[in-house]
Amino acid sequence: xxxxxxxxxxxxxxCVTLKAFETRESQQEALRMTLExxxxxxxxxxxxxxxxxxxxxxxHNKPDExxxxxxxxxxxxxxxxxxxVHMTAYVRTVDGIKIWVPRRAKSKQTYGGILDNTxxxxxxxxxxxxxxxxxxxxEEASFPEALIRSNTKPCGTVSYVHIRDERAGGETxxxxxxxxxxxxxxxxxxxxxxxxxxxxxxxxxxxxxEVQKALAEGQFxxxxxxxxxxFFIRHGILTAEDDPAYAEIVSRLHRILPFPTS
Length: 262
Prior knowledge:
This protein is an alpha+beta fold. The chain contains 7 helices and 10 strands. Strands 5, 6, 7, 8, 9 and 10 form a 6-stranded mixed β-sheet that branches. Strands 1-2 form a two-stranded antiparallel ribbon. Strand 1 (7-10) and strand 2 (15-18) form a beta hairpin. It starts with 6 loop residues before the first strand and ends in a 10-residue tail after the last helix. The model has no long low-confidence stretch (mean pLDDT 92).
């Protein structure tokens, strides 16, 4: 990283600190310039996927306030907590629950061609989780806003620490703590999601057995697999009688992250 004078760098303890500024805006600008400089110099492959989307960073002194924001593409370089929204749309049939599963477009910067949750997206600075899922549902699945607002049920969060691999694009081994706001939406057989933007290739209505098989084969994006496990637990599909590691699985779906989360 091309550290400027705005940073204190302790190479012995492998620690970097953004110096105190008179205003939050000045601190924000110093962070932006650092990442922009690294992008211009092409120091990190991960910055080639620049999004122009800002992610919030919450501080220890005032955990209920966003201290500064960071370009989404740079978040993994600093290992900050990132946030998103994930929704599972499902249908109750005579054969049991079926889940709408999308395949990400092969052209996606990250995890191209991999299976995903019905609707998912990153939560930008200042955006409320439910409003985010409403927006993403329209953009990715062509779901009407009225349907989302009337049928979507908030189901808590999952939190975990993810280590990025080559499918994520850019450098591998980057550590990414994440918190996802989870939603369910039960729909009738007449509700069929359709790709709206260039992020989704197609949607499949799969049985639980088909979803579990794809999970076991590693076909899902890692954080989407976490969300599906949470769905299985909440709907009684995965129980303590099914798996001796049940308690451990539940615990790992709700890790306490090492930084403020709100």
